Amino acid sequence: MKLYERIGSTGTPPPGNLTGGLFTADLTVSMIRIHITDYLPAVLGNQTVDVVVGSATSHAEFAQILICPPQTVSGHGFVLRETTQPAVAPVVVGFVDIQANGGFDHQNLDAVTAPTVDNGAGLPAGSVLTAGASVSESQGASFTDTSAASTFAEVGGVPCILKAGSCTVSAEVIRSQSNSEAAASGTFSNADGTQLLGATVLGTDVCAMLGLESTCTPPANTRIDLAGLGFVILNEQVCDNGGTLAKECADGSVAGHAGLTVRGIRLVVTVPNVLGLTPGAEIIVAEAHSDAKFVKH
């Protein structure tokens, strides 16, 4: 006879298994258990019987998730960021990001308006940017043998970014995209999916100026100087950890890692101007970042 008998067990995924397994726990509690080894001695063999009084059983399980995987990813994106001293607009609009083990984040915006100081310089309705429907999205996944992430930010219907007499930059659509993958065979990042539609700088059609179609992807880091204001960079691309675009960002200082930040438009103010923006002010429209890392084990 046993009083307060407890029979329990736990289970874990096999050693080295990083995802797809189960953690389990089981417990049976019996307040009284009487075990009779042979209740019919006249019959050949043992005739066993168990009498249990007051018994309860429980079971729990949890699917294994990858908390600290050897392969990692990250990604972020946003529709607009303005940096000024003092700040006169929201710091970031439409921000999305994912964790190191992957995930999905998405934002839809019906309209975007970033206000600025109304100093009579011809700014449209007191804003540095007014845009239509905009989307930002980041997603990624990490497994034992590979990792991948992709982020895009798309801004539609941008009538004007900063106006003083003529519009500094405008576009029908500004889309930036960053894609990264890492595996034993190698790592890479690229900006496939990045494009501008109907983009103009100081009234000049950018795609036509570059000899491209109306929907175009300007060469990476196309810089156009803006007299009396600063400069604008179209399709800005910067690799993580000092990597180079020629090597698809795979030759940075961190082994097995590739990452890329893509900005559709980055406008930088470098001199005093009629808009009243201080030198150092920066406006970024449509930024996307992704990176992936592979660790051999």
How are the elements arranged and paired?
Elements (H helix, E strand, L loop, with lengths): L1 E10 L10 E15 L12 E15 L8 E12 L8 E2 L2 E3 L3 E8 L2 E4 L11 E5 L2 E9 L3 E19 L1 E18 L2 E5 L4 E3 L2 E2 L2 E2 H4 L5 E2 L5 E5 L3 E10 L17 E13 L12 E12 L4
Antiparallel strand pairs: 1-2, 2-3, 4-5, 4-6, 4-21, 7-10, 8-9, 10-11, 11-12, 12-13, 12-14, 12-15, 14-17, 15-16, 18-19, 19-20, 20-21
Descriptive notes:
By secondary structure, this protein is mainly β. The protein folds into 2 domains: 62 residues, no CATH class; 222 residues, no CATH class. 1% of the residues lie in helices and 59% in strands. The chain is built from 1 helix and 21 strands. The strands form 4 sheets. Strands 7, 10, 11, 12, 13, 14, 15, 16 and 17 form a 9-stranded antiparallel β-sheet that branches. A hairpin with a 1-residue loop joins strand 11 and strand 12. About 3% of the residues have low confidence.
Report low-confidence residues grouped into runs of 5 or more. Answer: 117-126
What's the total helix number? Answer: 1
Instruction: Note the run of SSEs as H and E.
Output: EEEEEEEEEEEEEEEEHEEEEE
Quaternary state, please?
single chain
Query: How many individual domains?
Result: 2
Distance between the termini: 52 Å
Strand proportion: over 45%
Content-based structural category:
mainly beta
The helix fraction, in percent, is under 10%
| Count of individual beta strands | 21
3D shape:
elongated
What is the C-alpha radius of gyration, as a whole number of Å?
A: 30 Å
Roughly what is the average pLDDT, rounded to an integer? 86
Major sheet size, sense and barrel closure: 9 strands, antiparallel
